[in-house]
Amino acid sequence: MKKHLFPILLVLFGNTVNAQQDFFALTGKDSPRIEFNDFRAMNADGTSGETIFGVSSSANVISQARKSAVSEDKNSYHNSQAMNLAALAYDSSGNNLVYMPMFSSNIYVLNQKTKEITLVENNVARVTPCDINSHITRMATGYNGNIYAINNSGTQFIEISKKNGQFTVKDLGIIKDDESNGKNSFTVMETGFGGDMIADADNNFYVFSVTGNVFKISTKELTAKFVGKITGLPETYSVNGAAVNSKGNIVVASAKGAPMYEFSLNNLEAKQLSGEQNLHIYDLASRYFFNDKVTQVNTMANIDVYPTKVEDQAITVIVNDKTIRGNIKVTLFDISGKSVFNTNLSVRDGNLNQQIQLRNFAVGAYIVNITEESGKALLSKKILITK
Q1: DSSP readout, 157-176?
Q2: Rounded distance, CA 53 to CA 69, Å?
Q3: Rounded distance, CA 373 to CA 31, Å?
Q4: Pairing between strand 48-54 and 303-306?
Q5: 297-298 and 377-385: which strand pairing?
Q6: Per-residue DSSP letters for 128-194?
Q7: In the prediction, which pLDDT does 20 show?
Q8: Which residues pair with 207 in a beta bridge?
Q9: Which branch of life, at top level (predicted)?
Q10: What parts of the chain have a pLDDT lower than 70?
Q11: In angstroms, rounded to a whole number, what is the distance separating the alpha carbons of residues 172 and 167?
């Protein structure tokens, strides 16, 4: 077992990330009010990467329920480019961005490749524009591959799942304060509202409120336990976005025009990133999970495997990097570290988009390990085969 895990562990502990597109941001314009600007990839140092879709982009919106194109009122709160977008998550099963306007119950799924947007009509969430308690402001991908969202007061904990290409929405219940929270309440505006959330490898979530308070959400008990307050942030810093980076640390961002900060969830001591100093970020979306014993590691900016939740007995390997040439080796390890599958794929002109069939594999977790012909590690990523 140790023999098989050793190369993976070398990647995990030896990896340093520079200018890697690490997570995603929902950004706003340089304005004192909430005003959506674009979705973009973010580099590990806090600088902006590729712009994916913006307020001026042409939006092709397809209704999931009606299976047809829809025409949206751009002056309402209920449209895919509404100025009040404030919740974002990464859907690894299709390389999509899932997001919601803050004053609406509509759910949108943006395909990063085609730029087509799916409108998921949502009759479960009850969002009222004039009721701040009901606004959906926190969203993240869970370790099981589903998307989760929580409103400001915790009275709605929403699960967005996908089966056979169709998204469904379920209300999981009301999140209440842990008895130990005292004055640091999750359900009170001054201490618990707004911000963003991330997921861990044990199916828990962590909410970072606007004020920098951190709460651990137990999905079993539906309770929010106060963990502590982020230190090292400026006194007036507004925490509006949070993501796990490829090192397993937390990155937070502000809507008020400020730099990004990084810290460990183990000590909550934030240090400023060296990147851009005046970003207006309303939400962040993670590829990664806190406390994942086999953290997803991607040393290249443009190589990936999806989906991580495998329902259709296949994964897709994508490469878009001119420095990668010749063959790459794809190896699957089971959770014990045993190699159970390997194949070689040919990269031409730095590009590859190839599906690998995974029929007859037992349900469970696996590690996809990708290396160059020289043995250099390119990617190590956990997937979950569900059927």
Answers
A1: EEEEEEETTEEEEEE----E
A2: 18
A3: 49
A4: unpaired
A5: antiparallel
A6: -TT-GGG-EEEEEE-TTS-EEEEETTSS-EEEEEEETTEEEEEE----EE-TT-TTS-TTSHHHHSS
A7: 53
A8: 197, 215
A9: Bacteria
A10: 1-21, 293-301, 387
A11: 16
- Give the model's pLDDT for residue 173: 96
At 13 the three-state DSSP class reads: helix
| φ, ψ at 51 (rounded to 5°) | -80, 125
Whole-angstrom Cα distance, residue 359 to residue 343?
Answer: 14
**pLDDT 10s digits, 245-297:** 988 899 999 999 999 999 999 999 999 999 999 999 999 999 888 987 544 44
Which residues have a Cβ under 8 Å from the Cβ of 71 and sit 6 or more positions away? none
pLDDT of residue 343: 94
Angle in degrees, CA 10, 11, 13, rounded to 5 = 70
Give the number of C-alpha atoms closer than 13 A to the C-alpha of residue 57, restricted to the C-beta side. 22
Cβ-based neighbour number of residue 17 at 10 Å:
17
Closest C-alpha among 156, 161, 160, 186 to residue 172: 156
The amino acid occupying position 49 is G
What pLDDT, on a 0 to 100 scale, did the predictor assign at position 204?
94
What's the distance, Cα to Cα, between the start and end of the chain in Å? 25
Task: Indicate the pairing of strand 377-385 with strand 309-310.
Answer: parallel
d(CA 49, CA 64): 30
pTM score, whole prediction: 0.77
Taking alpha carbons only, the member of 106, 142, 110 closest to residue 124 is 106
What single letter denotes the amino acid at residue 316?
Answer: T
249 in helix, strand or coil? coil
Q: Any idea how long the chain is? A: 387
Residue 123, both tokens: 């009759």
Q: Which residues on adjacent β-strands are paired with residue 370?
A: 330, 379
**245 residue type, one letter:** N
Tokens of residue 175, six digits: 């999140």
The C-alpha atoms of residue 164 and residue 296 are separated, in whole angstroms, by 25
Q: Which pLDDT tens digit goes with each residue over 185-242?
A: 999 999 999 999 999 988 899 999 999 999 999 999 999 999 999 999 999 999 999 9
Closest CA to 319 of 268, 378, 248: 378
Pull the structure tokens for residue 187: 């359900």
* Distance (Å, whole) CA 257 – CA 32: 9
Provide the pLDDT for residue 10.
32
